[in-house]
Structures are given as C-alpha cells and as structure tokens.
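Dear Dr. L.,

I hope this message finds you well. Following up on our conversation about the binding site, I have prepared a predicted three-dimensional model of the protein together with adenosine-5'-triphosphate. For your records, I am including the exact sequence and ligand specification that went into the calculation, followed by the structure tokens. Please feel free to forward this to your student if that is useful.
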Amino acid sequence: MRIYKVGGAVRDRLLGKPVTDIDWVVVGTTTEEMLAKGFRPVGADFPVFLHPKSGEEYALARTERKSGRGYGGFTFHASPEVTLEEDLIRRDLTINAMAEDDQQNLTDPYHGQRDLEARVLRHVSPAFAEDPLRVLRVARFAARYAELGFNVAPETLELMRQLSESGELEALTAERSWKEISRALMEDQPQVFLEVLRACGALRVLMPEVDALFGVPQPEAHHPEIDTGVHTLSVLEQAARHEQPLTVRWACLLHDLGKGLTPEEEWPRHIAHEFNGLKLIKAVNERFKAPRDCQELALLVGEYHTHGHRALELKPSTLLELLQSFDVYRRPQRFEEFIAACEMDARGRKGLEQRSYPQADYLRGAATAARSVAVQPLLEKGFKGPELGEAIKRERLKALKVYKEST
Ligand code: ATP
Ligand code: MG
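The resulting structure of the complex is given below.
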C-alpha cells in the first residue's frame, strides 16, 4: 500500500499557510487490510478510516459515479486497482487535487501547482457538476484566498452557473449547506463568498431574499453607497474586519431583508422594513437550520437595529422595552452581540467606516443602569408575582430616566 497526503494539507503547505488538518489517501489496499492494521472505519459503506493513533482521516483511493440527485446519489468504487490519478480527478479544484508522498514528491496531474501560482480556482473535470456543494465550496475558497489574489476561472464560474440553473442546488441538505455557509462567513472576506454566489446565480437559488437586495436603493444622505445589496456586503465585511462571531455575521447578512419587499414607489425609503423583514429572516434561518443563537440574534437585529442607531433619542420607556425584548438581565452577551451588529451596520456605509458609534456605549450604559435595579428590597416590601414584575419594571424605568438625564 502507498500513502499520500492530499487536498488542503498539500495546497496550504505550497501556499505557505499553516496546515490544520491532514487528509490522507491510500492506494493499493483493501478495507480488510486497513482493519487488520488497526484503522477504525468511519462509516459502514464509506471507504474512510481513522488512524489508530493520530485520528487523522485515511481514505481508500476511489472513483465516484453519480447515480441520482443529491448527496446520496453517488456510487463509490474503491479497490486496490484504483490509481492515485483516478482518485485525484474526482476532486473539486485543481489546487485541491494534488498529492504528496513522505518525501514531499508531488503528484499533480491536473496542474494544481500552476493554478496556485496563477491564483486560479479551477475545476478538475466536468464531473465537478455532479455535486452541487462544490458551488459553495468554490465560493468559500474564493473568500478564503481573496487576499492572495485568487479568482474563479471563467469556465468554472460557467459550470457553477449551469449547476445553479439546473435545480441541483435545491437538492443540497440544510446541514451540508450550513456547514459551508458558516465556514465561509468566518473567513476574513466573507463578502467575497456572497459575491461569487451571486455572480454564478447561486445566491438567487439559495438566498433569494439576499439576492433581491441588489438594485434596491436607499436614501443617499444616510447611505452614500445607495444600493442595499452593496451595503449588506459592506456590513459583513466590517463584521469580519472587527472579528465578530458567527452569530453577529449571520445577523449582519440578514438585517435588511425587509428592504427587498418595499414597493418601488416608496423607494428610496423603507418604512417598517425592520418588521417586514422578519418573515424573510425566519425563512432563511429555517432553510439552513441555522443554530438557535444565530437564528435568535438575526431576528432581534432585524427587528431592532434602527432602535440601536437611534439609541440616544429613545425615550426611557422605549429603551426599557428594548432591554426587556433582549432579556438583557439574563442574556447580557446577546445584547452585546446586538450592539456589535448595529455598529457594523453603521460602519458598513461608504465613507463612514471609521466614524465613531457613540450609540454602542450609550446602550451598554443603559443596560448597566437597568440591570443595577436590585430585586431584594422589592421582595422585602412584600411584592410578589406579577406585581413584583411591575415593580421591577418601574424601578428600571426610573433608573433609565436618571441615566438619560445624566448623559
Ligand atoms: P480545508 O482547509 O477547508 O479543510 P480542504 O481542501 O482540506 O480544505 P476538506 O473538506 O477537508 O477540504 O476536503 C479534503 C479534500 O477532499 C479537498 O481538498 C478535496 O480534494 C476533496 N473534497 C472534499 N469535498 C469535496 C467535494 N464535495 N467534491 C470534490 N472534492 C471534495
Ligand atoms: Mg481538510
């Protein structure tokens, strides 16, 4: 049996990037032999094993053929006769289709090294079109390597366009899509992921609600960039630049979906877009089965981001409602994430990226004031049940009035 390093580990070493996980391919062997050597099978009918000591993934060289829609629609063929070149040709991109032996001798039949140098993301073979997930993967790699100057090859983008138009993207499971989307959002330039998806028509299929924002104008006085889609991508870009967590990035992407519903005769104003967008945010959340914290924050940011921007003008009673809606007393972290998303929204405007956002500290101060109301004295006064709740609210309102007057 011969063992090679493949995929990301080879690619990233050649790029001079840190290698995190190593994938191995094994040529000229059988499942029986792997098991006899102590490798643990990953799945029942998948020729992938875990190394008994390192836990790294070792896959038998295999060929694949498409036999139906979706991910289940693949038949694998793994046998000792399958060559390294045959295994590499089923991979997505040329830069991911290189292998290396323990002497660092490169096997590169599809010119991955040439494409690495030319900064091109290029599919290996027409079989690329057999797995629609590759559309998302290419967009994710485009985001990851944008800073190195990588671009998607025109012929690959064309294949991605055909895949997007064929209806195949709809066959992706929520789990597989979310894994790619969430990883892409955590890259340094997540906006590139969306730009590539949009360029090949995949955004219109996966997130038509986001796609619809392009071409929708906003008032130039607040939004020098005018276009809502452009704004959304800038907000996401700011979120990455400020190293925000996934929850905030997801909320940033979805915060303005309501603007896509505004009747054209109301443009460039978007009255009640915050509320109108909620059903769209819910739909996208559910389509990808986003984790609960991402779903929640996206809905809250969608509903309340304008409150955030207008924080300094809010009446104490409105401030209180805002804090109550976030349950800031038990969920302080979530409110911090809301503030961060609002700030990214404000910075995601052309020419205003560096402008200070005093609303952030003002909101933090308001939360602190409301949280400082002690419950014990109210209990001692004999309040209980709903009356206790009302009494706490009254005290918090008082605290917010004092806070507002003092700032
Ligand atoms: P990362 O740094 O994100 O781990 P990677 O290239 O190692 O990047 P993996 O998902 O770990 O990505 O996959 C390892 C290799 O398996 C890839 O480099 C690619 O050759 C191949 N591969 C993975 N998923 C697919 C797919 N859906 N279609 C084709 N090839 C794939
Ligand atoms: Mg990998």
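In brief: The first strand starts at residue 2 and ends at 6.

With kind regards,
A. P.
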